[in-house]
Amino acid sequence: MNEVAAPAGTAQRLVIRQLGLQPYEPVWRAMQHLTETRSDEIADELWVLQHPPVFTQGQAGKAEHLLAPGDIPVIQIDRGGQVTYHGPGQLVIYLLINVRRASVGVRELVSLIEAAIIDTLASFKIEAAARPDAPGVYVGDAKIAQLGLRIRRGCSYHGLSLNVAMDLSPFSRINPCGYAGLAVTQLIDLVAEDDEQSLMVTVEKLLLQGIIERLQPYSWVDVKHELPESPGQAG
Predict the structure, then answer these.
(1) Domain residue ranges in the chain
(2) Where along this sequence does the record place binding of substrate (predicted)?
């Protein structure tokens, strides 16, 4: 995807980073660095990517929810929530947003992300819903999207992961998001489409547009394909 339309409005800029398959820890450290060093003039960013297999344990995570990680690495991180799994075929979008500038509260940002995911799934005629007691998006009783954020210096980082066309079996090695026996599902099992790459491209475009439309208006969107070399100057 080379271009995303942005709503007309104030002269706020948005950078979208299309990063492909990236190891988890360097991306996490880059998010931290950008958040720690950004000024109020720095553009908001959305990072779009996938990760090699990895379990990430949030700040509320408990060791007993890691049932049998085996050869998949476990990284203790600083987002909210508990343990989840990332792997190829899962769409990840990190939201590096100046929430203070946008006048968006944490709960509002979570609801915004959930609504964008629900509307994206509705485009495939899939009925999905959020749960007030467990952030994320569900199709019936099965979780299809995970959310986890951190707010630091008035800015958000981390974000969402949507199961599109992946190997779901590693979820059985954990209690997903701290819930024993929680079922998980993915988009490709719920639609007629069997072209995984085409499905990923379509859902990525729809979900990005849904998020952008719900954030503060952006009049200029720039697409890049690498992590910021100097995060404090990114955008």
Answers:
(1) 13-230
(2) 79-86, 159-161
